[in-house]
């Protein structure tokens, strides 16, 4: 059952609205002024607040702003006898779901409340999904090298500093990038990923910056590039060491000027993007070899995070294995299997040239092929 609160200094208005809403099956509370309303909203989860604008002690707009700053998720429908454009615009700016004038039209009121409840549900579902995604991207481990990575993430996430993530394939560079985004001020915006190694050199510029119709053969329509898609959010350039020199020059310009130009176009487009890059290559050696621009390297590497290979953090293998066993059981809808102690010791002794990604694949194979307890013989057979 949806839970609503009416915040209004007129008792007769509160009573009338309460009768209507309770008849519709909603659970309804009342507050006689903004201060009381704020106190109740802070202590109780409400789907929707029907809130007057002009009230003693604290007006409705201030209440709306304070509730939104506290991320309560309550959808505000502002109700006022002063139905002027300025009030409606100001309420919308502060995050109100809708604005209704007194006396409210009954049909409009009920439709607005239903829509606001649906919006509240979507907001809550989004928060729940983000928590699940955050857990999936959680960096598991307590070894000294991985603790250093976690500490650096916590320090840099809240800043706008560009980050270069280095490490071998499968070590978890993408997960580090996602953690930086999720812990940062742009977490409510998009994280756009580009695998520079997977895109042919002749297409990378179009992928990053977009193109205009007719810019080249096959460009039958305008395309928005990844920089524009990531505007106000984060752009993750994975395997940037594989990017062509011509694309590097354009990326450098975008970072310097916060502007891009689509392929085949001449209009400059402003972008506000935080760039995180990753590579499995030694970019300093690539600079010496003439394959990477030194000026771009310095632009990207304000903060450098090196993700250690799994062989340098073997004490984390039991924790990682346990996480993978639970994750895979959830995916398959099965019970969580257990690993025998000697089997775990054997896993820790393996070379793990494919790093965490290889370990995850091995655990999944063991879950599929083995019984409820995974033995040493099982690991030797399938690892």
Automatic annotation (TrEMBL):
Modified-residue entries (4-aspartylphosphate), positions: 52
Domain (Sigma-54 factor interaction) ranges: 139-368
Family annotation (PANTHER family): TRANSCRIPTIONAL REGULATORY PROTEIN (PTHR32071)
Source organism phylogeny: Bacteria, Pseudomonadati, Bacteroidota, Cytophagia, Cytophagales
GO molecular function: ATP binding
Tree of life domain: Bacteria
Name of the protein: Sigma-54-dependent Fis family transcriptional regulator
UniProt organism field: Spirosoma aureum
Record InterPro entries: AAA+_ATPase, AAA_lid_NorR, CheY-like_superfamily, P-loop_NTPase, Sig_transdc_resp-reg_receiver, Sigma_54_int
Gene Ontology BP terms: phosphorelay signal transduction system; regulation of DNA-templated transcription
Keywords of the record: ATP-binding, Nucleotide-binding, Phosphoprotein, Transcription, Transcription regulation, Two-component regulatory system
Residue ranges of every copy of the Response regulatory domain listed in the record: 3-117
């Amino acid at each position: 059952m949806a839970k609503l609160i009416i915040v209004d200094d007129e008792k007769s208005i509160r009573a009338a609205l309460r009768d209507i809403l309770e008849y519709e099956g909603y659970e309804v509370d009342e507050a006689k002024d903004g201060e009381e309303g704020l106190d109740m909203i802070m202590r109780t989860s409400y789907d929707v607040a029907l809130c007057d604008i002009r009230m003693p002690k604290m007006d409705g707009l201030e209440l709306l702003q304070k509730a939104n700053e506290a991320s309560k998720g309550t959808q505000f429908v502002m109700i006022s006898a002063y139905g002027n454009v300025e009030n409606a615009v100001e309420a919308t700016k502060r995050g109100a779901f809708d604005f209704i004038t007194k006396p409210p039209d009954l049909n409009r009121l009920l439709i607005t409340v239903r829509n606001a409840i649906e919006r509240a549900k979507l907001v809550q579902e989004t928060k729940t999904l983000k928590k699940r995604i955050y857990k999936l991207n959680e960096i598991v481990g307590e070894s000294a090298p991985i603790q250093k990575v976690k500490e650096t993430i916590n320090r840099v996430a809240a800043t706008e500093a560009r980050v270069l993530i280095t490490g071998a394939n499968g070590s978890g560079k993408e997960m580090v990038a996602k953690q930086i985004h999720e812990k940062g001020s742009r977490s409510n915006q998009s994280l756009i990923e580009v695998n520079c190694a997977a895109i042919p050199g002749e297409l990378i510029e179009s992928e990053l910056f977009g193109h205009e119709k007719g810019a080249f053969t096959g460009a039958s329509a305008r395309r928005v590039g990844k920089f524009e898609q990531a505007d106000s959010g984060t752009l993750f350039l994975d395997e940037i060491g594989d990017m062509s020199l011509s694309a590097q020059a354009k990326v450098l310009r975008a970072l310097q000027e916060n502007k891009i130009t689509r392929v085949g176009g001449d209009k400059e487009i402003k972008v506000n993007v935080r760039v995180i890059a990753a590579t499995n290559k030694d970019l300093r050696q690539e600079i010496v070899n003439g394959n990477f621009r030194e000026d771009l390297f310095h632009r990207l590497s304000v903060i450098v995070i090196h993700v250690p290979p799994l062989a340098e953090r073997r004490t984390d293998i039991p924790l990682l294995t346990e996480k993978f066993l639970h994750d895979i059981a959830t995916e398959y809808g099965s019970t969580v299997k257990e690993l025998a102690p000697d089997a775990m010791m054997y896993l820790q002794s393996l070379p793990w040239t494919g790093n965490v990604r290889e370990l995850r694949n091995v655990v999944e194979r063991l879950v599929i092929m083995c019984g409820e307890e995974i033995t040493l013989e099982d690991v030797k057979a399938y690892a």
